[in-house]
């Protein structure tokens, strides 16, 4: 199933001068979480990377030989592919967030600030009338000025890194909201399909037509007995009931899986919202305090790609008749039609220029009006 490019597409507004190269990012993620630790950051991404590979393999098999696909594979990877939660762009965004967070934590305001305090205290004890103290004071004053310039540079770097981290947080949050809405819309479609009963009635009619064709073929080899006709009618009735039950259970299974993805995305999106305000206005000279919301958000993002639990509870295929092949064929056909409808509905909702999730703000906590003001240019005055 093609990736929805409106979800986790290009990330705009980032600072290109801060971006690590692919090799730098790979080296950083492969490094230890903490100094002296054997655990690497890559371990946190292992479940997500594994699922990316499984979905990729599923798509390859689906294109080459769809008949060999297992029902559970079709349902599980079909839903996960539909939601676009498993996306290389999300993994890269989380990796870059950790990279910039590490760079932010490495900014040391304490040493130059401590030196300035100590130097100023010492200068206060010097005698301005003594030539020796005057020379020492001048040296100290020059060193203090150097440290103040260093603090200004550190402050600029802090602002740049903090802006980049906020940009990534906003990017992830916005796309998680899109996933939420996609899941909600898909669940509505599934419920409507089930309530309407159109697919169920169509499949039942297909089963009946299938057996009518078999009966017509059998007539070429002789007259059918009443017992044979009764057996066929019974098989059709049983298969119809079984297919109806499978449809209900499959819709329930698909809905439950969509709800799990929706809840996982919603939890992190709300977590980003909750920490948005605390990212601003903190005293950046103390990373233990100013950096805390950024660190907490880093934990949220790591949890997003490492603690998901998307399990499929689907009924195994079984029938009381000797026609399991018919039931399997119709079940696969039904799933293909369901995913076809879901895919169509997704495309119909892909216009990102409308809707509540349209980008209207420069940070996760923004609640104000559109930044664009005044009349829009048109005609010759438009560039």
Care to count the β-strands?
0
Percent in helix: 55-70%
Mean of residue pLDDT values: 80
What class, by secondary structure content? Answer: mainly alpha
Instruction: Measure the end-to-end span.
Output: 38 Å
What percentage of amino acids are in beta strands? under 5%
What is the domain tally? 1
Largest sheet: none
What does it look like?
The structure is a single chain. This protein has eleven helices and no strands. The protein has 383 residues and is mainly alpha-helical. The protein has one domain. The chain is rod-shaped and about 125 Å long. It starts with 21 loop residues before the first helix and ends in a 35-residue tail after the last helix.
Secondary structure elements and pairings:
Elements: H1 22-29, H2 42-64, H3 71-83, H4 88-105, H5 110-125, H6 131-196, H7 198-219, H8 226-276, H9 287-290, H10 292-306, H11 324-348
Helix pairs in contact: 2-10, 3-8, 3-11, 4-6, 4-10, 5-6, 6-8, 6-11, 7-8, 8-10, 8-11
In short:
With 383 residues, the protein is mainly α. The protein contains eleven helices and no strands.
């Amino acid at each position: 199933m093609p990736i929805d490019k409106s979800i986790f597409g290009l990330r705009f507004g980032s600072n290109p001068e801060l971006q690590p190269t692919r090799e730098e990012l790979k080296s950083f993620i492969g490094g230890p979480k903490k100094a002296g630790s054997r655990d690497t950051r890559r371990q946190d991404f292992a479940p997500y990377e594994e699922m990316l590979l499984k979905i990729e393999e599923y798509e390859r098999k689906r294109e080459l030989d769809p008949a060999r696909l297992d029902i559970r594979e079709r349902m599980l990877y079909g839903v996960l592919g539909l939601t676009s939660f498993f996306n290389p762009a999300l993994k890269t965004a989380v990796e870059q967030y950790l990279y910039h967070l590490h760079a932010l934590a490495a900014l040391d305001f304490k040493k130059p600030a401590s030196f300035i305090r100590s130097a100023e205290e010492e200068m206060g004890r010097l005698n301005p009338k003594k030539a020796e103290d005057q020379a020492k004071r001048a040296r100290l004053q020059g060193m203090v000025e150097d440290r103040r310039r260093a603090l200004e540079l550190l402050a600029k770097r802090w602002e740049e890194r903090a802006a980049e981290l906020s940009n990534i947080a906003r990017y992830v949050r916005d796309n998680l909201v899109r996933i939420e809405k996609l899941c909600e819309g898909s669940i509505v479609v599934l419920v409507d399909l089930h309530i309407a009963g159109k697919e169920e009635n169509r499949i039942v009619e297909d089963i009946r037509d299938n057996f009518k064709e078999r009966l017509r073929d059998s007539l070429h080899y002789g007259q059918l007995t009443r017992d044979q006709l009764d057996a066929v009618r019974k098989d059709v009735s049983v298969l119809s009931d079984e297919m109806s039950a499978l449809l209900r259970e499959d819709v329930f299974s698909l809905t439950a899986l969509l709800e799990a993805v929706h809840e996982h995305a919603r939890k992190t999106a709300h977590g980003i919202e909750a920490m948005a305000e605390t990212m601003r206005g903190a005293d950046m000279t103390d990373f233990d305090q100013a950096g805390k919301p950024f660190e907490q958000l880093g934990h949220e993002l790591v949890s997003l790609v490492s603690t998901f639990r998307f399990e499929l509870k689907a009924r195994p295929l079984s029938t009381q008749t000797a026609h399991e092949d018919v039931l399997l064929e119709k079940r696969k056909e039904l799933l293909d039609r369901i995913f076809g409808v879901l895919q169509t509905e997704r495309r119909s909702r892909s216009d990102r220029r409308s809707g509540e999730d349209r980008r209207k703000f420069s940070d996760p906590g923004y609640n104000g009006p559109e930044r664009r003001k005044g009349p829009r240019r048109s005609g010759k005055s438009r560039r």
